Amino acid sequence: MFNSFGNILRLTSFGESHGKGVGGVIDGFPAGVEIDMEFIQQELNRRRPGQSAITTARKEPDEVELLSGVFEGKTTGCPIGFIVWNQNQHSNDYNNLKDIYRPSHADYTYAVKYGVRDHRGGGRSSARETTSRVVAGALAKLALKQLGIKITAYTAQVGEIKLEKDYTAYDLSTIEENPVRCPDQEKAKEMQELIYQTKGEGDTIGGIVTCVIKGCPVGLGQPVYNKLHAALANAMMSINAAKAFEYGIGYKGIHQKGSQQNDIFFNDNGTINTHTNNSGGIQGGISNGQDIYFNVLFKPVATVLMEQPTVNADGTDTTIKARGRHDPCVLPRAVPIVEAMSALTILDYYLLDKATRL
Amino acid sequence: MFNSFGNILRLTSFGESHGKGVGGVIDGFPAGVEIDMEFIQQELNRRRPGQSAITTARKEPDEVELLSGVFEGKTTGCPIGFIVWNQNQHSNDYNNLKDIYRPSHADYTYAVKYGVRDHRGGGRSSARETTSRVVAGALAKLALKQLGIKITAYTAQVGEIKLEKDYTAYDLSTIEENPVRCPDQEKAKEMQELIYQTKGEGDTIGGIVTCVIKGCPVGLGQPVYNKLHAALANAMMSINAAKAFEYGIGYKGIHQKGSQQNDIFFNDNGTINTHTNNSGGIQGGISNGQDIYFNVLFKPVATVLMEQPTVNADGTDTTIKARGRHDPCVLPRAVPIVEAMSALTILDYYLLDKATRL
Amino acid sequence: MFNSFGNILRLTSFGESHGKGVGGVIDGFPAGVEIDMEFIQQELNRRRPGQSAITTARKEPDEVELLSGVFEGKTTGCPIGFIVWNQNQHSNDYNNLKDIYRPSHADYTYAVKYGVRDHRGGGRSSARETTSRVVAGALAKLALKQLGIKITAYTAQVGEIKLEKDYTAYDLSTIEENPVRCPDQEKAKEMQELIYQTKGEGDTIGGIVTCVIKGCPVGLGQPVYNKLHAALANAMMSINAAKAFEYGIGYKGIHQKGSQQNDIFFNDNGTINTHTNNSGGIQGGISNGQDIYFNVLFKPVATVLMEQPTVNADGTDTTIKARGRHDPCVLPRAVPIVEAMSALTILDYYLLDKATRL
Amino acid sequence: MFNSFGNILRLTSFGESHGKGVGGVIDGFPAGVEIDMEFIQQELNRRRPGQSAITTARKEPDEVELLSGVFEGKTTGCPIGFIVWNQNQHSNDYNNLKDIYRPSHADYTYAVKYGVRDHRGGGRSSARETTSRVVAGALAKLALKQLGIKITAYTAQVGEIKLEKDYTAYDLSTIEENPVRCPDQEKAKEMQELIYQTKGEGDTIGGIVTCVIKGCPVGLGQPVYNKLHAALANAMMSINAAKAFEYGIGYKGIHQKGSQQNDIFFNDNGTINTHTNNSGGIQGGISNGQDIYFNVLFKPVATVLMEQPTVNADGTDTTIKARGRHDPCVLPRAVPIVEAMSALTILDYYLLDKATRL
To answer: Where along the sequence do coiled-coil regions lie (chains A, B, C, D) (predicted)?
Structure first.
């Protein structure tokens, strides 16, 4: 209800930025899936701060400890508890935040909602929580791999610099070749430069992540309130700093008429196929076997290094100036989180679909 | 799980386009709310097809019958069952759809997922199901009114014709003065003309609905997976033909740096206020007391009157040509549905928030 | 959460004793199940008041109207809405209850919890709500039949008159041969006489219903909080007037040592079997393929025809005397309700189990 | 769904008997509750094996480590992660269980359901999981204390030795004065002797735990499927070895007529009270302000030290003889678990009730 994600496959996460650690319980994970610890670590490394010159310099080694649910290298169908211990916490860096509300952060809303607040590094509202998502998402990816489903996200736009073509024009296997995680190496350089420059200004910048899901079988999703794209929108908008979601042709199709946007079915050597995929692989809320693709807009991170006016907890006007390290662009590290939340959603809906037939 | 919406306040809907009727059960609705049947009917009228020259000519009188949960004019805390009986069903109009998959409709995905399919008028996937949402939303609005929360949506863009300013520039009480439900009467005329022209071509067109929620208290929403804007995204993307969701400054902010987009707190005569509202009234997933606003993109309706190629259920290529009436633009009728889903979401989160403190 | 039952297969019911009707929505019902309306009606007849001299004389024709989810005689996977219209409501019989709290009824607790109360015939707390359960249970039985699972309940004890042997000693197909629904025709007569005599006194009497589930596959149930017998206990205790639940050997085993109660496994011509079934077909919360059996204790119905002291809503002492008709023993009509709730539970857990493997 | 308990307050537990540890996440715990670590430890000590001569000799120090959700000694409203690390694991003691199904254990059902199985000490099905419940229950008790709600359970029967009177006849504050946790010190000695003797025989014995909840406000519980006693039954039957649940007068009332069992209301110096409490504090599924009380039957533990016939995983007949230590009677240690599950249920329903009014 509060800190859980999913229906059948359900991640419940816990932990704060500067507490003992972040972790969670993955319930409903199918039995018999082989666990590849190296792969999970690799995914964590993709999310980790400090991985390149264009992300925050905060160092988090981030090693996951599985606590249950795996026996002799395979999942047992029992809940998978896990924890990533916090290290390198400079809690004192945050003493100045105890009684102050940072602009566009969750400080004020938390304080009013709960009455108490762990102010250190944003506490529960910190993006450090996404570590748990990446661990769970890595496990989901291992299960999806067995089903032939592959999920890839990439940076499609940073500020004004954007890819001109859609995902089909790029080789998505080249994403890890640059720190921006963009499949166009030229654009990647431009983006990287923009981020670096923004970092130098102590400022931040946003952009767009595109995600592509290949190999999804026909039939996932519910027709009314739990449409597959509604579940994906919910998943994406639960990621810190996400501000918009569009799937398929999305906003680009606003100038099209219905006769232009419709995806025409045809008999493709014995199987039913569509000439176009403006629907983004989902029709009537249910996957149709085509590629699923969507965009997620991320706003610039709220923590900037310049002085800003704000108020204290008692309402008096004051100013704030963040110290030390900041993350100039969340995009490169958002890529694995988008993938993780997609993997959790698709595996959940895959399992849910199995329960709809006798 | 499948046909339910909400956590505490939960709507479970039933019904198909050409079955006996559409209806639902609203569970968790608070006791003691006065029921204004005239208001509910008024809301249904706003959703009803055939209300003006620019919507579908299909006539649906759409009168709701409350079946339970109301006693002597007030809600009792017991589940509210309701039904809107179907009338004027031209099921025979759809005989030609029995073995054919309409492009960009749910026919194909339903057939594969369930094995059986009520093909008449789209069956369960028909937008007729939204009648249930409008009934439930009207009830939710009555409860929200007691709390001083007001929700207004309007048409902000049709095809290329769009409002240039944000919601604060318009008098939202004038929306019902034109059939497009647009607060700018000049633009409304242009939009209306475009829709009328598109209708003449047998084609369809999409656009954007903006929604504004005023009076929402601070503290609604969960910090991690059930952020208030994630719940709203989920709600909006569950509406037929919705393809994108953005909240607050959204895509317009992509060129801003963090220092520009941050909403600066200040002491406003004793209460904490912000100079701007790029956050769209939600920070860290929790409402902050400012106006909540967001956009929903709707694609052109898939049913067009020109002949289109497609396949039969057995996979053979064929063509299809819809007969009779079609809805050239879903926007005017989507407005009350967007409001209804917003009302259900906000009331649900209001009740959920009450359960978080001793 | 409030008026829903089940996880995957979920019944949400609505309706009050003297409102328009009682009904519900069955969500998650698998597609492709053939609907036998005659069977459903037959099940409703078994629950119906006025069916014999030993139940309440209140006449309720109780015909169900399916509103959705069935097309050309088969379920479609879409939610099944249904209603049983109320008839023969003597609401005026209950005018005297408006401001009075009947002893051991829900009048007082409802009034405090909700502030308002539909006092007519107990409103929502009336056993009339179980009509919805019997409809949904009948549908579940149709699905279970396809799976070879059969559920039979019977009256095992009324007051002091009880069956001496366990279910294996009786021919359960003879239950409908007497109005008590007891498989021992001699005992049935004694029970019937006791009930008839109690009725004459204007009083009521309780007893025990035993339920047997045959053909349940191995593997249904969750190991920890959602054990199969915990789900059954929850289901049974949700029936009006139920006061106790025991499964397997239950209380009879209190004098046994562990070495006596353990069910010894043996190789039974190639399949794993047990010599005894003290476990009642459930081990570690999961079905083991043996018969599942359990008892449910029902208290005497609270409505008696003699005058009783009580208080008014304002707390002043007064007396109450129910008028007209009463139900001397709930057992005969509880039998189909116990079966219905069992059927819903088993089908739900069957579907849930399907979602636990890739 | 699988390893979670509760609606608003939700415990999701993880861990196996011989894995790294057992723990969980408590979500929905209200903010601002003071945490008393000493009290939590005390509760764990009451559950701990090896605490007296009449329980298993297995030593488990059982110290809980809170991982999140508490800041400066108070809960923050964020999820409370916790772990109790396993120690003193003699995994090799269980090597002989790898390919054998212990009678009346979960070995066989797990193997069929999941395909894989952590056989060490019963893995997930081990009662060691209840450690997590006691931690969560202790936290719930701290919140309930603020509300004036007090929960006490005690051993009421062991084999044939039973308390003759109901809970009102005893001083429940004396329960911890004997290792059986029985409020009658004489009976406690007899019970203790019986258990000790049973232990000497390598056998086990069951009995009854009674639980009493005082101070519960009027109005907790839902009227239909989620009646308060149904939730308690579900909670109790989720405890290992529980076989029956009865509340209020329960089976003792089977010989009463309705006119005898009804609880008569009267004006008790201005408040509404009842002369008797056969309803066990719950009417129509909702608490009525009287004491809530119920019994839970526990069967003899399945692990006995004598040789028993059984089968191997491949179905061949064999014998099994447990080694070393066993728990002759689960009752003394079940007492704190019954209290814990009651506390979680009551707090959950308290919070849920808050969400039912505007």
So the answer is: none
Residue A227: which CATH number? 3.60.150.10
Express each pLDDT in C76-89 by its tens digit: 999 999 999 998 66
Of B3, B14, B31, the CB nearest to C116: B31
Mapped onto helix, strand or coil, the DSSP state of residue A298 is strand
Asked if D71's CB is within 8 angstroms of A116's CB, the reply is: yes
3 state DSSP class of A39: helix
Q: Do C114 and B28 touch (CB under 8 A)?
A: no
- Nearest chain B residue to A353 by CA distance is B113
Cα D166 from Cα D248, distance rounded (Å): 10
For residue C1, the chain A residue with the least C-alpha distance is A1
Of residues C28, C354, C358, nearest to A147 (C-beta) = C358
Flag if C3 and B25 touch (Cβ within 8 Å): yes
Tell me the nearest-neighbour CA distance from B348 into chain C, angstroms. 13
| Residues of chain C above pLDDT 70, percent | 96
Q: Look up residue B15 and give its amino acid.
A: G
> Who contacts C193 (Cβ-Cβ below 8 Å, separation ≥6)?
none
The phi, psi pair for A81, rounded to 5°, reads -85, 145
Q: At B296, phi and psi to the nearest 5?
A: -130, 125
SS3 at position A128 = helix
- Token readout for B177 is 């003065």
User: Which stretch of DSSP H or E encloses residue C145?
Assistant: helix C130-146
Q: Are the beta carbons of D223 and C106 closer than 8 angstroms?
A: yes
Which residues are paired to A150 by β-bridges?
A214
Range of the domain at A9: 4-354
On the question of pLDDT at C57 being above 70, the answer is no
| Chain C residues with CB-CB distance to D250 below 8 A | 243-244, 297
* Cross-strand bridge partners of residue D207: D158, D298
How far D146 CA sits from the closest chain A CA (Å)?
A: 17
Give the whole-angstrom CA distance, residue B139 versus residue A164.
46
D178 touches C at CB < 8 Å: no
What pLDDT, on the 0 to 100 scale, is given for residue A155? 98
Which H or E run contains D274?
Answer: strand D271-274
At D90 the pLDDT is 62
Rounded to an integer, what distance in angstroms lies between the CA atom of residue D212 and that of residue D295? Answer: 9
Angle at D280 between CA D277 and CA D285, to 5 degrees: 125
Q: Are strands A292-298 and D100-101 parallel, antiparallel or unpaired?
A: unpaired
pLDDT tens per residue across span C95-152: 777 889 999 999 999 999 999 888 888 889 899 999 999 999 999 999 999 999 999 9
β-sheet bridge partners, residue A247: A294
- Which residues touch C137 (CB under 8 Å, ≥6 apart)? C43, C336, C337, C339, C340, C341, C342, C343, C344
And the tokens for D90? 């003699």
- In chain D, residues with a C-beta closer than 8 Å to the C-beta of C229 are 237
Chain A residue with the nearest C-alpha to that of D74: A116
Beta-bridge partners for D25: D12, D81
Per CB-CB distance under 8 Å, the chain B contacts of A223 are 3, 106, 110, 124-125
Could you give the number of structural domains in chain C?
1
The rounded distance, in Å, linking the Cα atoms of B226 and B233 is: 11
Instruction: Report in angstroms the alpha-carbon separations of C21 from B16, C41, D150, D229, D292.
Output: 21, 16, 41, 27, 33
What does the block give as tokens for A9?
A: 């496959």
C-alpha atoms less than 13 angstroms from C-alpha of B339 in its C-beta half-sphere = 28
Neighbours of C39 (CB within 10 A): 14
Rounded Cα gap, residues C263 and C276, in angstroms: 5
| Amino acid of residue C19 | G
Q: How far is C225 from chain B (nearest CA, A)?
A: 20
* 104-123 of A, contacting D, C-beta below 8 A: 113-118, 123
Candidates B127, B137, B175, B171; CA nearest to B39 is: B137
Query: Which pLDDT value is given to residue B323?
Result: 76
